[in-house]
Amino acid sequence: MTQATVAPFRGQAESDERPLPSAADRRSKQSLLFALPKGRLAQDSLSFLERAELSIPTDTESRKLILPAADGSIGFVMAKPRDVPTYVEHGAADLGICGLDVVRETDRAVYEPLLLPFGHCRLSVAGPAPGSATAHVENPDAAGLAVKPASSAQLDGTPLRYMSQPRIATEYPRLTRQFFAERGVNAEIIALGGSVELGPILGLADLIVDVVQTGTTLRMNGLVEIRTILESQAVLIVNRASYQLKAAEINRIIERMRLLTT
Amino acid sequence: MNGHVPFGVADYFWEEANMRQGLLDQLMETFRGWGYGDVIPPMFEFDSTLSAQYDDRLRSGMYRFLDRDGSTLSLRPEFTTPVARLVGARLHDWPMPQRFCYGGSVFRYLEPQAGRQREFWQAGGELFGAPDPAADAEILALTATALKVAGLTQFRQIVGHIRYYRSLLEALKIDPQQTQQLQWALERKSEPLLEEFLRDTPLRTGQRQAVETLPQLVGENVDSILSLAERHIQNRGMHESLQNLRGIVDALIGYDILDSFVIDLTEIRNLGYYTGVSFEAVAPGLGTAVASGGRYDDLVGRFGPAQPAVGVALGVDRLLVARQRQDGQDAGAGQHRLQPALALPQGSPEALAQVQRLRRAGMHIQVDVNGWGLDAAFLYAAETGVRDVLVWEDGFQHHRRDERGDFVLLGPLEVGGLAGRTEMSREELFK
């Protein structure tokens, strides 16, 4: 079955676009607000919007919080990636782009019509590589609370459910808890704001859950991937009310983006 | 005592309290105008009663506590279930249809967001004992009317029919995991997830086409969407749900509200206890629904003889936020704030008798109880936004604050010289 068989949400049945009631006309033309993630996905998001022939802000380095598109049709806010789904759920922004990992972790009530062809990565469980120095670092304070796997060398082929309460450092506490809970493991989640690779090195955690693109960072820190929790890529998200209230404008954007995704 | 309040509740005072109470009054008055009678269910009930509805999210968000005899009680998270209990258990032999309206606090243990604390206000109406599409149409039209009364001009009502989706599931005969996959795709309006479902799930051609068509069953063109859906009917349930929607749309023609309609047969997020039509109203500037409702024919029967029922609940707090965003910032800035006149009786019993007469005529008047002189009275009046000061000198002398903030003597108080805070002027406050 090819992808082309699925019609877009809101398809041909909408072809005869009905004008809004006159009172609403003026406001319906108000521009959309688009939330984009700062950091890793920022440049890819902007180039993608450009390829989709959507007007993008000319000066993204500006200190202004809301950046108008070059033609004024759309406003952009550059937000912390984690905040993008929040902005969109609350309707502060009509649309947003962020990673699927963030959408699943924040679990906000938004529509997510399209996956976008960039920002590919995976959310993985990783642990100390067999025989690596980090596997042997002992932290006397943190050790001994739970039965640990006899050797991390076994982790690769060993069901995670054999682990008694592993301590897991992550920026993704919700997905991590869920992943281990599904396997009957009541993991001890250590939520960090970044640099989770440090967890096993310092003896803070047995394992980590983090996004992996090439695996270089993991290798440099003596860690190996054990399981994949989620294959992630960029995703377009839409506020549920805006989807209906600004249907015409939002559909125009979805249509243009879809041309680049199929 | 630190004077804090718990997370999720709030104090409302001054103009904000006025606006909230005023909006609730207007909504209730609208419902009454459609023949809906007031009902005041208890603030808390047995947990088992309130859990009779099926919405897991709602159920997990209830405030529960123990009664002294050990039974579990819950604060009401909504009004529909208590009213359904009342009708099922006590009013089942009263002639149908029965119409009820309500307004007040409900409680949900959720993260507060714009226009919703953990205690928030709902107003709504429920119509029992009428299975006909005309009843669904009445609730939809009543919702649109209430939203207009609340001052919203650009809302949309997104109308779905849960039976269409449930019947499709019956036709597909897929396992729970596949059902979950389809539900996820539809809830998120995700094309990739729907493609994935179709890749993973073997279906007969007709069924596959019915699923492939789902995303197109969203939009403003009610007639063409229903026609398209009718071409992919798999069983009696899907047929009947579409017939039902057509009936509702036909019954709505006279109400002239169809231009705010959006059909969305993939909107299945708020399954709750609905059995037929279900809808949400959205307004610009607010990412979440300001009203939601639908048909729930199975709920009353849990408490007594079954009765068909359909109803709607509006979020008063969210309506206020939506109206404020629609009208711009200045609408909430208190420019309409009109304080009651301040009367200085100067120790005269006659003055108080006169104040009583003025109050009976609808004037809002506060009487000086501190024995103030003019200067103290003017100072207090100026600081609290009082415009009119009445000073007794064998009859009230009327002082009014001018644009510069000085009080000017207008002379003896004349009939009609005071703005009253009657129902009439309260309505003016809102327009």
Describe the structure.
With 262 residues, chain A is an alpha/beta fold. Helices cover 27% and strands 24% of the residues of chain A. In chain A, 41% of the residues are buried. Mean pLDDT of chain A is 81; it is low at 12-29 and 134-154. Chain B has 431 residues and is an alpha+beta fold. Chain B folds into 2 domains: 14-330, Bira Bifunctional Protein, Domain 2 (BirA Bifunctional Protein, domain 2, 2-Layer Sandwich); 341-429, Rossmann fold, CATH 3.40.50.800. Chain B has 15 helices and 17 strands. In chain B, α1 packs antiparallel against α5, α5 packs across α11 and α6 (162-172) packs antiparallel against α11. The model of chain B is unreliable at 330-335 and 423-431 (pLDDT under 50). The chains are: A alpha/beta (262), B alpha+beta (431).
Short key terms for the protein model shown above:
heterodimer, A: 262 residues, alpha/beta, D-Maltodextrin-Binding Protein, domain 2, 2 domains, 6-stranded mixed sheet, 11 strands, elongated, B: 431 residues, alpha+beta, BirA Bifunctional Protein, domain 2, Rossmann fold, 5-stranded mixed sheet, disordered C terminus
Explain briefly what this protein structure is.
With 262 residues, chain A is α/β, with parallel strands linked by helices. In chain A, 27% of the residues lie in helices and 24% in strands.
Given the structure, what is the number of helices of chain A? 9
Which term fits the overall shape of chain A? Answer: elongated
Instruction: Provide the CATH superfamily of the largest domain in chain A.
Output: Periplasmic binding protein-like II
Basic shape of chain B: elongated
